[in-house]
Amino acid sequence: MEKVVVAMSGGIDSAVTAYLFIKEKRAVEGVFFILFDEPPNIELAKKTADFLRIKLHIEDLREDFKRYVINPFFERYKKGLTPNPCILCNKYIKFPALKRIADKVSANFFATGHYARVLKKNDKCFLLKGIDKKKDQSYFLYGINRLFLNQLLLPLGEYTKQQVKEIAQQAQIPSKVAEESAEVCFLKDKRYYEILKPASYGPIIEASTGKIIGQHGGIHLFTIGQRKRLGISSPYPLYVVKIEPAINAVYVDSKEKAFMKEFYVNQLNWLVEPETNSFTCDVKIRYAMNPEKAFVIIIDKDRVRVTFDEPQFAPTPGQSAVFYNDEVVLGGGIITETVQGF
């Protein structure tokens, strides 16, 4: 009998993932990761495991999580970047830990409740978008080790979120299990800027004129495309269009100035090795957007230049750009700088 280790979060998605494997007559074991003090859903995960009658491993990963996710999260905000902790967690914490535990218990596969798919074709494995376009989470998985795809199972990629809810109801999985997790889990009910210590003040500059029109309380308070918390009166709506850490400045202007075509990406991870040094593909620069056509030029093994066919709103240093060929995730990396005319 094939054995699968499932990452259990206490939420409905991981519960249904484990349930589907049980229905397939596979041996299932769960694992709950303690990532920070007082994890809110550990009792829910235990309740789910008891309900499904599976063994639940408890793994304390707080030290690694702090080193690879929490500390970089705050350090990057201090540098005027906008990080994505979920991507860091998947790359450095969750998936390596799942692989390690699967090997330890002699499991054939490991699985999560992400809405994405793995396709095995001609002895190769590919990461694909989930069929539920509104819920597709392939964006968050581009950074994982591509060798993991050989053992990774993502059953929810074949379902919509509504179908998963219906399965949970029909299986009478306890209703409390159906809680959605927070985007930045370790912040709990706080905002990131409420935790960071006060930073040095600096100028707010109107990009089109170069004039200083205000002062800010720290570049960590801002991200590209932001409109709120600027504290400046203007005859037209102002948006953050650039952050310049070297001079501790925040540039603002009209929304049109936040649209850009060209940017650079570093810290690349390829799930499908490029066959040429330049190619056209679809690119996402944030989770909640439709992929847009772009031309990618490989500068070296860890840097590419991306040019959209049409300007896109707020490519943001620190966020990830993920490359797609239709449904297939090719890879991605971290946006490091944008090309602007000011």
TrEMBL record:
Q: Which residues bind ATP?
A: A7, M8, S9, G10, G11, I12, D13, S14, F33, G113
Q: Name one GO molecular function term.
A: ATP binding
**In this record, what's one Pfam family?**
tRNA_Me_trans
Lineage: superkingdom:
Bacteria
The reactions it catalyses are: S-sulfanyl-L-cysteinyl-[protein] + uridine(34) in tRNA + AH2 + ATP = 2-thiouridine(34) in tRNA + L-cysteinyl-[protein] + A + AMP + diphosphate + H(+)
Please state every residue range assigned to the domain named tRNA-specific 2-thiouridylase MnmA-like central. Answer: 199-252
Gene3D superfamilies for the chain: Adenine nucleotide alpha hydrolases-like domains (2.30.30.280), HUPs (3.40.50.620), Translation factors (2.40.30.10)
Give the GO cellular component terms, alphabetically: cytoplasm
Record key words, sorted: ATP-binding, Cytoplasm, Disulfide bond, Nucleotide-binding, RNA-binding, Transferase, tRNA processing, tRNA-binding
The entry's localization annotation reads: Cytoplasm
Point out the annotated site residues (description: Interaction with tRNA): H114, Q319
User: The tRNA-specific 2-thiouridylase MnmA-like C-terminal domain covers which part of the protein?
Assistant: 261-335
Q: What is its EC number?
A: 2.8.1.13
EC main class here is transferase
Family matches, as HAMAP family: tRNA_thiouridyl_MnmA (MF_00144)
Q: What is this protein called?
A: tRNA-specific 2-thiouridylase MnmA
